[in-house]
User: What shape does this take?
Amino acid sequence: MSVLDPQAAVASAAPDRRRRRRRRPITGSLLVGGLIVALVIGMALLSFVWTPHDPTLVDASVRLQKPSPEYWFGTDKFGRDVFSQILVGSRTTLFVGFVAVGVAAVVGVPVGIVAGMAPRWFGELLMRGNDLLLAFPALLLAIMFAAVYGAGTLVAMIAIGIASIPTFARLIRGGTLQVMQTEYVTAARAAGRGPFAIGLRHVLPNVSSLVIVQASVGFAIAVLAEAALSFLGFGTPPPTPSWGRMLQESQELLASAPRLAVFPGVAIAVAVLGFNLLGDGLRDRFDPKLEDRR
Assistant: This one.
């Protein structure tokens, strides 16, 4: 390939990297995490078409029933079926996670790319503003939003998403700075391509693996944040089932009916574990630095 042929240099660099990625084996973390996440998604999809009982139906005549063939996980203090609540609660958790991670990615990824491609002074200015946002954790931001707009699922989603923007922006900026030092970006500049074309055709595809990994990890954080907000009363309002609110409602019955806290607690722990394992597995599969160490 001739040094004077920048178009060929641009076209040949990225495919080699993609071929190297495809040769990597599927790790145990990726397999186990993928199975757990698939299980949670399957529960959420199942809840749209079937639940053993109405999860919002209050029936005092069957309150605090122990697990049985009719009520698989028993009933709570209001007579609602716990298993049905777990199923529908997975739908709420995934919905909040998808929207929160989507908000963080839609805002954080462009900010990170611009900060990495812009002049150094402008990139530093963006990152300092990004650091200011780090001073507001998701829980604190959600409490502030709830005080102004009232508690609700939408408030929780927006608060968690905004609080996750700095993580995406910092990560993508680091990846962008590395991509901007590669030969094929230099060749693209020599070919006369503008910043927008370089960012869209060369930077974004090469940092997409970072976005995927961070989205998986961010989803686990969103699951925990939504559960914590619902536990504190700033998340999903009743009667919509929520794993965090199920934990909150079970507090006064920990001595007599601990299963009411065990089932939603295990559901939260398994979901977070699944997304964390999936994130680790995706990182092992996509991170070129890990490949270089092998």
Notes: The first helix runs from residue 6 to 22. The two ends are 29 Å apart (CA to CA). DSSP finds eleven helices and no strands in the chain. Residues 142 and 148 are 10 Å apart (CA to CA).
